[in-house]
Amino acid sequence: MNAPEPEGPIALICGAGSLPLAVADLLEKRGRKVALFPIFGTARTEDYAGRPHTFLRIVQIGKLKSALRAAGCREVVLIGSLTRPAFWRMRFDWDALKAVPKLSAGFRGGDDHLLRAVAKLFEQEGFILRGAHEVAPQILVPKGTLASRQPLDSDREDIAFGLDYLSTAGRFDIGQAVVVARRHILAVEAAEGTDGMLARVADMRASGRVRSRGGVLVKAPKPQQDRRIDLPSIGPTTIEGAARAGLTGIAVVADETIMAEPSSLAGAADRAAIFVIGIKPGEYA
Predict the structure, then answer these.
(1) 81-85, 99-103, 241-245, 278-282: which has the minimum mean pLDDT?
(2) For 77, 105, 130, 233, which has the most beta carbons within 10 A of its beta carbon?
(3) Is residue 87 a contact partner of residue 107, using CB atoms and an 8 Å limit?
(4) How far apart are CA 134 and CA 180, in angstroms?
(5) Residue 241 and residue 70: Cα distance in Å, rounded?
(6) For 109-126, what is each residue's pLDDT tens digit?
(7) Is 23 in the same domain as 132?
(8) What is the chain's percent helix, strand, coil content, to nearest 5?
(9) Does residue 1 fall inside a structural domain?
(10) Which secondary-structure segment (H or E) carries 192?
């Protein structure tokens, strides 16, 4: 038998993008109460107008704990994109100051290392950390193509090449995405994120530094990654960025990639004339 869900509302700590509110809507349709905690400076104020919410700064740990307990929340979901802040510019409250040794150790590694440190802080306070895909599995990319266009054999070779690279680089906590064209890596995701990486590829093509045509955006979680807090994601803006970069398609790991605005994804891909496919690891090996 499945364990019963904890009582009380579920807390969504919201970064940027449309995904936090989309997940909130899915949970509320299931009859689950939701408490929204958007991050100041990251989530857009206008997106939360008309909905009960509490804006917090990223290191207001004491205020967040008090707010979670006042709302009766035991389960917490970290969701939405978040720009990694500069450690020296963060304004700590007292509880955050006490956690500085743990947080500073997290800052000395990659994103996955930092997120694990944050996750431990929640768990040590008795909260249950959930992945967005655990509470709303509808947001996961399924296996198979999501739009009309199908990948060619050359695309499949690029996908396999990209997944092989990400499996290796992921052990060093380096990015979740790569652009491959004719088995040649054009760009690797860095601190700028997927959208920034795609903009780089578009600039390189516009300037003539990249002359090859086509290419595939490949995204996959890092091998050691905590799936609850940082799964790769795609959405209509990813489609638009891939089209501007001159790519022929997008390939992601099925059931381990989140899709923002799934109802718009296929239409956006068809308008851009690119494929979007969810595959299982090893499928194109």
Answers:
(1) 99-103
(2) 77
(3) yes
(4) 31
(5) 41
(6) 444 445 566 677 778 888
(7) yes
(8) 40, 20, 40
(9) no
(10) none
Whether 43 and 15 have beta carbons less than 8 Å apart is answered as yes
Do 157 and 228 have their domain in common?
yes
Q: Does any domain span residue 154?
A: yes
- Indicate whether 113 and 151 sit together in one domain: no
Return all residues near 137 (Cβ < 8 A) that are at least 6 apart.
none
pTM listed for this prediction: 0.81
Across 220-255, b (16+ Cβ under 10 Å) vs e yields bbbeebeebbbbbbbbbbbbebbbbbbbbbbbbbbe
Residue range of the domain that includes 24: 10-137
By three-state DSSP, how is residue 27 classified? helix
Q: What is the pLDDT of residues 6-24, one digit of tens each?
A: 568 999 989 888 889 999 9
User: Please, where are the H alpha helices in the chain?
Assistant: 19-29, 61-70, 94-98, 100-107, 111-124, 132-135, 153-169, 193-206, 236-244, 262-272
DSSP state of 132: H
Please give the backbone phi and psi of residue 231, each rounded to the nearest 5 degrees, phi first: -75, 150
One domain for residues 160 and 205: yes
Distance of CA 67 to the CA centre of its chain: 25
Buried b or exposed e, range 17-32, using 16+ CB within 10 angstroms: bbbbbbbbebbeeeeb
- What whole-number distance in Å separates Cα of residue 50 and Cα of residue 185? 45
